[in-house]
Amino acid sequence: MPKSNPESTFTFAGRKVHRMGYGAMQLAGPGVFGPPKDRDAALAVLREAIALGVDHIDTSDFYGPHVTNQLIREALHPYPDNLTIVTKLGAVRDSTGAWLPAQEPEDLRRGAHDNLRNLGLDVIDVVNLRVMGDVHAPSEGSIEKQVTALAELQREGLVRHIGLSNVTSAQVAEAERIVPIVCVQNHYNVVQRDDDALVDELARKGVAYVPFFPLGGFTPIQSSALSTIAASLDATPMQVALAWLLHRSPNILLIPGTSSVAHLRENLNAARLELPDAVLRDLDAI
After folding, report:
1. Which residues on neighbouring strands pair with residue 57, listed in sequence order?
2. Residue 167: which residues within 8 A CB-CB, separation 6 or more?
3. Selected catalytic residue, list 22, 63, 188, 209
4. Are 112 and 158 in contact (CB under 8 A)?
5. What does the alpha-carbon distance between residue 196 and residue 11 come to, in Å, rounded to a whole number?
6. CA-CA to 234 of 20 to 30 Å: which in 50, 108, 115, 263?
7. Has residue 2 got a pLDDT over 60?
8. Residue 150 phi, psi dihedral angles, 5° rounding
């Protein structure tokens, strides 16, 4: 018997948003550096996302750098009233495209102003502190200084809500003692589940969990079991991987990225995919 489709919306940063959003990282050039190979196609993807009901876009001024935010502004400004834009602070790029930590309070303040300017905003809906470390896994350590700096930006009215990225459960707890946290963005997908306990912990508190690399990132998920299941559902493996995440917990918001309108539509259609209970058991076993 098919399992009913999961709830399609979640209350995030004071708004009800569709759980399937869009991540803008892939709009930049190779290695998330430099301009897109096809600027018109990048703008078309953003406009099509909004036309198809996306109301949650994830970005950062260190994508490019500056490229994705400038594209978002060109394509969508003035923004729809229901659009929630989430950005990240905590890194910068050098002239070669290397990712460098930018975790000091003055770095975070400078990054916030860069995002405001390039997005054409007076206030940012949500700012995630991206804690630097391994690209795929967080490492322990105090983030009190950084979160305190973001809380000051919030008091000044430059930021509405604060989130965290690439963090441990202990770091979430530390941050919550300083300021309310509305989302956590960590590495998680159907084959990478180190955060199972954290997903459930945040769900109990009504805090959004936003997987980065929901489809495996720079190394797409490869699983013969996933491919077999997808074929039985007349879907793609990536659609099934996204659908599994939507079924996994009601607080999971998805931000799959693409620079292709066709791929965007394919990703969004994953929200309509029904997963029978037997299929969910098979996916859970991957």
Report:
1. 22, 85
2. 129, 131, 138, 143, 175, 184, 186
3. 63
4. yes
5. 21
6. 50
7. no
8. -70, -35
Residue-wise pLDDT tens digits, 34-57: 999 999 999 999 999 999 999 999
Amino acid in the structure at residue 38: D
Tens of pLDDT, residues 75-112 = 999 999 999 999 999 999 999 999 999 999 999 999 99
What domains appear along the chain, each with residue ranges and CATH number? 11-222+252-273 (3.20.20.100)
Look up tokens 């979160």; give the residue: 147
Under a CB-based contact definition with an 8 Å cutoff, are residues 164 and 172 in contact? yes
Report the alpha-carbon distance of residue 101 to residue 133 in Å, rounded: 9
Position 218 scores a pLDDT of 73
- Give the count of beta carbons closer than 10 Å to the beta carbon of residue 94: 9
Query: Across-strand partners of 27?
Result: none
Tokens of 115: 């995002």
* Residue environment code for 228-251, b if the CB has 16+ CB neighbours within 10 A, otherwise e: ebbeeeebbbbbbbbbbbbbbeeb
Residue 37 has which token pair? 């190979």
Measure the CA angle with vertex 143, ends 140 and 149; round to 5°: 165
Determine the Cα–Cα distance for residues 134 and 194; give it in Å rounded to an integer.
Answer: 14
